DNA sequence: CGCAACTGGATGATGCGTCAACCAATGGCT
DNA sequence: AGCCATTGGTTGACGCATCATCCAGTTGCG
């Protein structure tokens, strides 16, 4: 990580990175702010709630939820704790693994997500999707595909390294 | 904000949004984590420091800095406070407007950014730029251009509304 | 069986980001 | 000159994200 034969960015790269950086910051804060104002739910709340909404009995194992939203476990745990005190979610014991936890949407939680979904979609359209041509939509899909693939690969390497370390 | 004749997302839009969302979250946390591990600087630190590095005498008025990084003023103030106690930056009085503040890079701050720049560029290449074709780079630039233009427009409307309110 | 390693998850400390309130300096208007 | 609205910036409170640590239940291996 220390040795860098890194060439500087070309103007083209510079523009792309700079644009992405600016967009990323402003867009996510705008979406977050708007959702919060419209519905009282943060982006994070919404991610959790809609994952639960999409699950069989509106209940999901902690681990499954973690895979779904890709958060660190302590973040998830803290956030679920807060959401529980707000009455959006309940924690229950897990039958097949008694150290595990299962989280379920409360009626209030369900109502909240359902109410929020429309606003969220509208905002995403307003500030992103409706601004792009079909080609740009596809380009965005491909770009994120490439980046996510790279990140996943990295992750796999980490696992492999852990495997090796265990073998020693 | 409440009435939504919003149609649901098409599959194409769905893929684009979902991809962007996932990429955004993982990419920024990866870049942040890596920069922090390599250099002890957060993404936020780096943004401030490189803005200062690019300024005339490595000094910038608070307001100018705010335009540069596009943060809320209280965020900037808090962060600069912390950076000052870490010795990366100094706050000085402003001559032409005595309620203003000027911030300057300390030698340590300068050294820190300069050391960090290479790592940052390398990481951005590894996880984003090197994964994309030239066309994708341009697409990214256009996409962010469109989004930023929309956000700016919104901003202008807000200003105009404020103007109107003043006129009443 | 019994012990060690691992795993799902919780917790506490700490730094960050946002909001609202605040303060003093400034500039415009009469 | 005098007043009021505005602006540049700070502060405090509060919720969120991360790290390290911890704990109990589980699994694998001898």
Report on this model:
- Chains A, B: This is MarR family transcriptional regulator.
- The structure is a homodimer.
- By secondary structure, chain A is mainly alpha-helical.
- Chain A folds into two domains: about 25-130, Winged helix-like DNA-binding domain superfamily/Winged helix DNA-binding domain (Arc Repressor Mutant, subunit A, Orthogonal Bundle); about 135-168.
- Helices cover about 70% and strands about 10% of the residues of chain A.
- In chain A, strands 1-3-2 form a three-stranded antiparallel β-sheet.
- In chain A, helix 2 (about 45-55) packs across helix 5.
- The two termini of chain A are about 25 Å apart.
- At the A-B interface, helix 1, helix 5 and helix 6 of A face helix 1, helix 5 and helix 6 of B.
Which key features would you list for this structure?
mainly alpha, homodimer, 168 residues, 3-stranded antiparallel β-sheet, DNA-binding
């Amino acid at each position: 990580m220390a040795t860098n034969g890194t060439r500087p960015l070309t103007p083209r790269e510079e523009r792309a990175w700079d644009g992405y950086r600016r967009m990323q910051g402003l867009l996510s804060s705008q979406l977050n702010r708007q959702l919060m104002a419209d519905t009282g739910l943060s982006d994070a709340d919404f991610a959790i709630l809609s994952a639960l909404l999409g699950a069989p009995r509106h209940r999901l194992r902690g681990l499954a939820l973690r895979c779904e939203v890709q958060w660190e476990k302590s973040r998830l745990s803290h956030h679920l704790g807060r959401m529980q005190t707000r009455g959006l979610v309940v924690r229950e014991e897990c039958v097949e693994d008694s150290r595990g936890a299962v989280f379920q949407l409360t009626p209030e939680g369900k109502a909240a997500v359902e109410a929020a979904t429309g606003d969220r979609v509208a905002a995403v359209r307003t500030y992103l999707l409706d601004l792009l041509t079909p080609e740009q939509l596809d380009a965005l899909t491909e770009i994120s595909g490439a980046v996510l693939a790279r990140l996943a690969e990295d992750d796999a390497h980490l696992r492999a390294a852990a495997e090796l370390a265990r073998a020693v």
